[in-house]
Write a structure and sequence with these properties.
The protein is of the alpha/beta class. Helix 6 runs parallel beside helix 8.
Length: 488
């Protein structure tokens, strides 16, 4: 009997030892997995309704973005932190609200002391002052990943000051202070871009940026990397290849129709052949990058995040797209100006493609990427990590989302601030203190202002909005002392 007990005890110890070794092997296997690469793709001025995955009836063809959506998580209530480019871009690379950074307008927009040379000089308000350079002391996504051993690369539009080189990017192809490709060739050589070597005659910018990105990935395939491919597309100037323009000019489309948003005409039909070509050429460039990930064997362990920096351009500068049923477009605080496509794909970490309806915002990108890559989280952030939501479907903590745009947009929008709480969206316009309240679940078009029947909700939301504006030291527009003579 004693011998049996001894054998049994030895067997138990042996079994436990095997389990311990197995556990260590599993842990070692997990630890051996290389950290994921990150490819952050940002479109410029691409509307929510421009993408096939979001709008099956879109006039434009986006097969590569649609493929990405079919393989990842597609967000249907994702927002840019501002209705124009620079503020949203600042929020992406810092995780902070533009109002906190005081980077609330596109860099180059009029300041209170320069508005006399701008078309808004007769408006009742002077714009709030803003900082027109990303503060160097702010931690960026690139700096945080570089500290964790990542190689960092930037291609395309920066528009956050002179150069991304000063903010953690080792390699920069085309990023500088310009908000668009305004060289002699526009989207074609000559680019006249001091941070991008000229290519051969006839070279097209979206394809060039994709090739530069693919080359960087190939050269750094053995170590983790961040590629931030920030397209100039589909920002003005409106230009595409002759082949794509001809393709869409021949494609059946509804006749052009117009609506009215304030003092501006707003396009209500997608049928602009040149813009359509711009969308497709950008999609083709995205296809080149996705193809490079496949051919390099990196796709399985690469996080790809695709988004836009604001809504589609529908009320100005050629009115190239329609955002319907979303109201207005770029430069406005209605849904057409701030709702954006957002897709996240990571085959190794996100195995089940799905649609996600939780409201999120571009300040969430940085903490999410750092969490997914296992890096140290920033000391302060206005965003939250979406990783629990992405990986487990766990609900995010209840929170309000905020916007502050104390400027007159080139596209016709007025200074205002916004809070979104659950399905409710409240807009305060600073020019006349007008308040509008919409229910995003029942009124996506923002046509039914519910201020009167929901006055208690309005009071509560406005109190929270005012407290938030004070907490971030938001700069406000001021009365224009001489709106009729301010150009003298």
């Amino acid at each position: 009997m004693e011998t049996y007990r001894s054998l049994q005890s030895n067997h138990e110890y042996t079994f436990r030892g095997v389990l311990a070794i197995a556990a260590l092997l599993v842990l070692a296997g997990c630890m051996a997995k290389p950290p994921p690469n990150v490819v952050l793709i940002l479109a410029d001025d691409l509307g929510y309704m421009d993408v096939g995955a979001y709008n099956p009836d879109t006039f434009y063809e986006t097969p590569n973005i649609d493929r990405l959506a079919s393989e990842g998580v597609r967000f249907t209530q994702a927002y840019a932190a501002a209705p124009v480019c620079s503020p949203t871009r600042a929020s992406i690379v810092t995780g902070l609200y533009p109002a906190r950074l005081n980077t609330t307008d596109y860099f180059g927009a009029p300041q209170p002391n320069t508005v006399s040379r701008h078309w808004t000089r007769h408006k009742p308000l002077l714009p709030a002052p803003y900082v027109d350079e990303l503060p160097e002391e702010e931690l960026t996504l690139a700096e945080a990943l570089a500290a964790g051993g990542y190689r960092t690369f930037f291609a395309g539009k920066w528009h956050l000051g002179e150069s991304p080189d000063n903010h953690g990017f080792e390699v920069n192809k085309g990023g500088w202070s310009s908000g668009g490709p305004y060289g002699r060739g526009g989207y074609f050589v000559p680019y006249d871009n001091p941070r991008l070597e000229e290519g051969p005659e006839g070279e097209h910018l979206p394809g060039r940026l994709a090739r530069e990105s693919a080359a960087f990935m190939a050269a750094n395939a053995s170590q983790p990397f961040l590629v931030f491919l920030s397209f100039y597309s589909v920002h003005t100037p409106l230009m595409t290849t002759p082949e794509l323009e001809a393709k869409y000019a021949a494609k059946p489309a509804k006749p052009t129709a117009w609506g009215q948003e304030g003092e501006r005409r707003v396009r209500q039909v997608q049928n602009h052949a040149v813009y359509a070509g711009m969308v497709e050429s950008m999609d083709q460039a995205i296809g080149k990058v996705l193809g490079a990930l496949d051919s390099l064997g990196l796709a399985d362990n690469t996080i790809v995040l695709f988004a836009s920096d604001n809504g589609g351009l529908s009320t100005s500068e050629g009115h190239p797209t329609s955002n319907l049923p979303l109201r207005a477009g770029k430069g406005w605080l209605y849904e057409g100006g701030i709702r954006e496509p957002l897709i996240v794909r990571w085959p190794r970490g996100l195995r089940t493609p799905r649609v996600e309806t939780t409201p999120v915002i571009s300040t969430d990108f940085m903490p999410t990427i750092l969490d997914m890559t296992g890096q140290q989280m920033p000391a302060r952030s206005d965003g939250v990590s979406l990783w629990p939501l992405l990986s487990k479907g766990s609900a995010l903590p209840q929170r309000d989302l905020f916007w502050h745009y104390p400027h007159y947009g080139n596209q016709g929008g007025s200074p205002g601030s916004v809070i979104r709480r659950g399905p409710w969206k409240l807009i305060t316009f600073h020019e006349d203190d007008q308040v509008e309240l919409y229910n995003m679940e029942t009124d996506l078009e923002e046509m039914q202002n519910l201020v009167e029947p929901e006055h208690e909700r309005v009071a509560s939301m406005r109190m929270t909005l005012d407290a938030w504006l004070e907490s971030v030291d938001a700069q406000m527009p001021s009365p224009n002392p001489s709106p009729e003579q301010s150009d003298s």
